[in-house]
Write a structure and sequence with these properties.
79% helix; globular; single chain; mainly alpha; 0% strand; 97 residues
């Protein structure tokens, strides 16, 4: 049974959303992020930085590691954090359009 603090989970999910959104959708302060994306171009990492959903999977991994006690819990929390961030992304993108 997965046992994690709901507040910690929500905070981690918001952090995953914010980091993934920054790297995939924004230019960043002083255009640092856009320069970073241009540096990688069309390589694997460049394409990863262009896709919020893909990026959220990798950004959520360290947060899941911090939240979980076992590897099975970690996998479930990892996917849940990414899924929650994707839901937030879809909700915010619909309002932005």
């Amino acid at each position: 049974m997965i046992r994690t603090n709901a507040l910690e989970f929500i905070l981690c999910m918001l952090a995953v959303w914010r980091i993934a959104y920054l790297f995939s959708q924004e230019d960043g302060p002083f255009d640092i992020v856009i320069r970073f994306r241009k540096l990688f171009g069309q390589s694997f990492f460049g394409r990863l930085l262009d896709c919020f959903t893909c990026l959220s999977v990798w950004v959520s991994a360290p947060f899941a590691y911090l939240l979980c006690k076992g590897w099975l819990d970690g996998v479930v929390i990892w996917l849940a954090l990414s899924g929650g961030a994707c839901i937030l992304f879809n909700l915010t993108e619909k309002h932005a359009k």
